[in-house]
Amino acid sequence: MPVIKILPHAQLCPAGDEFQAEPGVSVCEALLENGIEIEHACEMSCACTTCHVVVKRGFDSLGEIDEIEEDLLDKAWGLTPTSRLSCQAIVSDEDLTIELPKYTINHARENH
Ligand code: FES
């Protein structure tokens, strides 16, 4: 099974983490299953940007980005050439290194 390495993030995962994930799950699901509470404001339906991650290693193994994801990513805070919406990025058989961006844009939360 591929290993997902998470780089340290001040709030979500201060010491970083490393765990195995089943091929076929989304990166977002794998994070949540392993206790990393990444935001997923639209419940993983590819309609927000709060689950944005930067893929430091293994980007090409995650499959194609579709147009909807690409358009949304344009609005994500801290966009990079290897950014993905983690709920749309499906783990295959390659190890991954993931960085969680420092900020997210959560309109739902900002309005409260
Ligand atoms: S949770 Fe909204 S796009 Fe991933």
TrEMBL record:
Coiled coil: none annotated. Its cofactor is [2Fe-2S] cluster. Residues 2-104 form the 2Fe-2S ferredoxin-type domain. The keyword Electron transport applies. NCBIfam families: fdx_isc (TIGR02007). This is 2Fe-2S ferredoxin. Gene3D superfamilies: 3.10.20.30. The keyword Electron transport applies. Keywords: 2Fe-2S, Electron transport, Iron, Iron-sulfur, Metal-binding, Transport. The gene is fdx. Belongs to the adrenodoxin/putidaredoxin family. It comes from Ideonella lacteola. It comes from the Bacteria. Signal peptide: none annotated.
